[in-house]
Amino acid sequence: MTVFRTVRGMRDFLPEEAKMMKYIEGRARRVAQLYGYKEIITPVVESYELLAAKAGEEVRSRMYAFKDLGGRKVALRPEFTASVARLVATTLRNEPKPLRLFCVGSLYRYDEPQKGRFREFWQSNYELMGSSKPEGDAEIIMLTNSLMKSVGLKNCVFKVGHVGVLRGVLNQENVEEKVQNEIMQLMDKKQYEDALKIVENAGTSEKCLVILKKLVEIKGSKVSQVLRKMKRQVEGYGRAVDAVENLREILKLVSETGEKIDMVIEAGFARGLEYYTGMIFEVYVPEMDIALGGGGRYDRLIELFGGEPTPAVGVAHGIDRIMMAMQKQKIPLRTEEEKTVMVIPVKEELKGEALKISRMLRGSGILVEVEVMGRRVTKALEDADRRKMDYAVIVGERELKEGAVVIRNLKRREQKTVKIERIVDMIKG
Ligand code: AMP
Questions:
Q1: In the chain, helix, strand, coil percent, each to 5?
Q2: Which terminal CB of the chain, N or C, has fewer other CB atoms within 10 Å?
Q3: Is any ligand 1 atom within 6 A of the Cβ of residue 293?
């Protein structure tokens, strides 16, 4: 007989991990509320054209794409931004701006499975539509920091850059957008030499090549110092200088909030997705060399999808990777401990009574499991013990005649007879 396993790259989440994933999702949803982002739910299956338009070659080549039974070319979403941009270009076209939207769910990329890289993974995603101002960019960074803090992660570092710096130089050198995208893809993978080779072949000036070579080496955590260096380097490239200025304004606003956020500014930083036009960033913890989240500004995507010109900035956080980081930093979940109870009928005829008592307890918000294996009381108690439950309610004939049951405190190994109407008070303490 065939033994079925998960498909390569797909995972099952058992209760402990599922609980953690849902906990992080809950935190992300709370952060969305705190910042005024309204949740939307978009389909997992979208048109291939939409998803492919600006995803970048790296993501595009790894899409789960197929024809549905109606012959439509579709794909499983590899990211959320295209779907949200589609909505803002169509159904939400006339919504007043700013529009703050949040979504959470699973995404699909046919990546080579490895640590922290899965074919099915989860993201919380936030998009701020309609603002071109640096305070919009600052908000997205702040919100990411809030989420990291909210799940208890320590020592987060933000890697920050601005695609307008590199693109500003390349534009002025008349490098075609398609070629620029190739260059950015290689930069994203830190293949700087290959990237510079393409720049050279694109017929750019000698000066440009020298500038780019130096630019990719500029990075550091002293924000104003790094920005100064960047600006000096791109002198004469107007748009690139503007981009550095824009980044300065964004980071100034972030620092003015009073929140201390560790940052590394990298002039040669690029991200795989093609739609970015401005500030870009990723967030890391020291224990892992892969990003927990990333985002940036994309001012032209909605227009590209046929909507009104709408500046936008957003971020996606990898829930799976946040979970890995929490495990590495040994961060416990901050959930309220709720009491768990097992209700055990002493004999067959009392099953109905046991179910009735369970119903009453659940009605008062107590977590109840009923003995359903027909086991004797001692066996059922052993099981409840093994599973670290708090109480057992033993339903016996003698006590029931008096309108009572036996409650056993499984942690303290004590038990007493209690009137049925008093059970809830006793357990809730
Ligand atoms: P991106 O959409 O590529 O900007 O990714 C945003 C975040 O999603 C990353 O920082 C990761 O945390 C997460 N992520 C992206 N791809 C994967 C993957 N294949 N497996 C797990 N998490 C991923």
A1: 40, 20, 35
A2: N
A3: yes
Residue nearest to atom 10 of ligand 1 (CA): 293
Q: CA 343 to CA 368: how far, in whole Å? A: 7
DSSP for 328-372, written as a single string: HTTPPP------EEEEEESSGGGHHHHHHHHHHHHHTT-EEEE--
Q: What are the φ and ψ backbone dihedral angles of 405, each rounded to 5 degrees?
A: -140, 170
Question: Could you tell me the mean pLDDT of each successive run of 10 residues in the chain, 429 residues long?
Answer: 93 96 98 98 97 86 97 97 96 97 98 92 98 98 98 98 95 92 89 90 89 93 96 95 98 96 94 89 97 96 94 98 98 88 96 97 95 96 96 97 96 96 92
d(CA 383, CA 406): 17
> In 89-215, at which residue ranges do the beta strands (DSSP E only) sit?
99-108, 120-129, 157-162
| Cα 394 to middle of ligand 1, angstroms | 49
Exposure pattern of 313-342 as b/e (b: 16+ CB <10 Å)?
Answer: bbbbbbbbbbbbbbeebebeeeeeeeebbb
Tell whether ligand 1 has an atom less than 6 A from the beta carbon of residue 111.
yes
- What domains can you pick out in the chain, each with its CATH number? 15-328 (3.30.930.10), 340-428 (3.40.50.800)
Taking each helix axis from N to C end, the angle separating 163-172 and 206-215, rounded to the nearest 10 degrees, works out to: 170
| CA–CA separation, 103 and 84 (whole Å) | 9
Atom of ligand 1 nearest to the CA of 283: 10
Q: Does the pTM of the predicted model rise above 0.90?
A: yes
